[in-house]
Design brief:
The chain contains 14 helices and 17 strands. With 495 residues, it is of the alpha+beta class. The protein folds into four domains: 11-122, Beta-Lactamase; 146-249, Beta-Lactamase, CATH 3.30.450.20; 252-340, Orthogonal Bundle (Helix Hairpins), CATH 1.10.287; 341-491, Heat Shock Protein 90 (2-Layer Sandwich). Strand 1 (22-27) and strand 2 form a beta hairpin. Helix 10 packs antiparallel against helix 11 (310-337).
């Protein structure tokens, strides 16, 4: 460039003297110091003339790794190989040890080869590195012991970073998650929520909370798992940029909430049930009087008839039978609903089944189903709310009857049995129908299972809640050779 100064050979001395890096020049053969630049003299506190006669022990740390023979070997390696690097601790004139990174380079001068050593103070750098390693170790320890998983997703939802806890929650290793589409871990509706968060999140927006349901490995019938997540956009020095998710497992919380909803449904059902009982009692009371009056009128007409009365007598006789049947139905209904007690009482489980028998017989006769009662002669004392346990028995028996109504007449059989088994009183309802398809026995009482085309599975869910509240359990198994067996167990009350 026109006007630019030319650098001459004499200028290199001034440029070399202006270097901030420290430079020592050693004789290639004897390793004696020949020269030092001003920066080296300033750091070590010696003049060039003071440095020339010094040996390694005079200007190095006393530590074993800085012994003279090690320093000579390092310099000789530079003579032989052209260059050599070492971490070396020089000692200043005032006795201060200076940790450095030293690079020795062979330089062939006109008078012969020399070794030029460039070194810089790395004590502060080493301390900083130790602090970083210590901080990084602590962070790794904290992250490993956090209950929350941490992931960072790019704009396409692919994982840029995953903590060890995140990998554990998702069932993998952190490195295996990198580059994976995180939405693939989620159920479809939750994946849609995540993609919305990815498109609407940006710098400066407040964090948002969300719930995500994981995709069920076993399909729709597998147990669901849920995460609560806090989402926020981050941009760390343009090095890590994307959607930060902090998430933890809330499966137990969601299940508890579901149980609470089932409890609310149960209470609503119970309120309706009690209201129906009150209505049934009122209807039974009102209807029983005109039925009794009609019965008396028929009896009066028959008493005034001469002979058998022909067709009129036949009609009156059958009318009387129908009135007797209606009266029996009302009597059974009143006896059943009159016990809508809200407190537990000591009762024989056999008596509860007996109270239910009439209603089950009526339903069985309507569907031409053969109903067999196999009640034990042993007492089965239990402490329970009689009407609720009766509701369970009715529900299971009605379900069995409705199932068998779909089969040929010769196969339509339902058995209701009671027995004692250890410390439990047991009621079993057995049918010989199709059984439970691919039996999801662990899920038929969760309120979402039904074998009826128009059913919702609420009856079984309520039955399960009633029985478990009484300290018992209800099970469903395959009946032999085919069909379903429902078994209810209640703790026996020992007097």
């Amino acid at each position: 460039m026109s006007g630019s100064p030319e650098i001459t050979a004499s200028d290199f001395g001034r440029l070399f003297a202006a270097l901030r890096h420290c430079v020592l020049v050693h004789d290639a053969e004897t390793k004696a110091i020949l020269w030092a630049n001003p920066a080296a003299c300033a750091v070590l506190g010696f003049t060039v003339d003071e440095l020339k006669p010094l040996k390694a022990p005079d200007m190095s740390s006393n530590a074993r790794q800085y012994a003279r023979e090690i320093g000579v070997t390092w310099l000789q390696r530079a003579v032989d190989e052209g260059t050599s690097t070492i971490e070396w601790s020089y000692r200043s004139k005032t006795g201060v040890d200076i940790l450095t990174e030293a690079v020795a380079v062979r330089v062939d001068l006109a008078a012969g080869p020399v070794v030029m050593v460039q070194f810089r103070d790395i004590a502060e750098e080493k301390a900083t590195r130790r602090d970083l390693f210590r901080t990084e170790g602590r962070l790794h320890t904290f992250l490993r012991n956090l209950d929350e998983g941490i992931v960072v997703l790019d704009g396409d939802g692919r994982t840029l970073f995953a903590s060890a806890t995140a990998a554990t929650l998702l069932g993998g290793e952190p490195d295996d998650l990198l580059g994976i589409d995180f939405a693939g871990f989620l159920a479809p509706e939750s994946a849609a929520l995540l993609r919305e968060a990815l498109t609407t999140s940006s710098q400066g927006l407040s964090p948002r909370n969300a719930r995500y349901r994981l995709a069920t490995p076993g399909g729709a019938d597998g147990p669901a798992r849920w995460f609560a997540a806090r989402c926020q956009y981050i941009d760390i020095e343009h090095d890590l940029r994307g959607l930060l998710l902090l998430f933890h497992d809330i499966t137990d919380t969601v299940r508890a909430e579901d149980e609470h909803r089932h409890d609310a449904q149960y209470l609503n059902h119970l309120a309706r049930y009690n209201a129906m009982g009150d209505m049934a009692m009122a209807i039974a009371h009102e209807v029983s009087q005109p039925i009794a009056a009609a019965h008396n009128f028929v009896a009066g007409v028959r008493s005034r008839m001469n002979g058998d009365g022909g067709n009129l007598g036949w009609g009156l006789e059958n009318a009387t039978k129908q009135l007797d049947r209606a009266a029996l139905i009302l009597s059974s209904l009143r006896q059943y609903v009159v016990h809508l007690e809200e407190s537990k009482q000591l009762v024989d489980l056999n008596d509860i089944v007996t109270d239910c028998a009439y209603f089950v017989d009526v339903r069985a006769n309507q569907n031409s189903v053969a109903l067999h009662w196999d009640r034990t002669t042993e007492a089965l004392p239990v402490n329970c709310e009689k009407v609720l346990i009766g509701q369970v028995v009715l529900n299971l028996a009605f379900n069995a009857v409705e199932e068998m109504a779909q089969w040929p007449h010769k196969r339509r059989t339902v058995v209701v049995a009671t027995r004692r088994h250890g410390a439990y009183a047991v009621v079993e309802v057995r049918d010989t129908g199709r059984g439970l398809p691919n039996p999801p026995f662990s899920q038929i009482f969760d309120g979402a299972f039904s074998t009826k085309g128009n059913g919702h599975g609420v009856g079984l869910a309520l039955s399960h809640r009633i029985i478990t509240r009484h300290g018992g359990d209800i099970q469903a198994t395959e009946n032999s050779p085919h069909g379903t067996l429902f078994r209810v167990r209640l703790p026996l009350l020992h007097k």
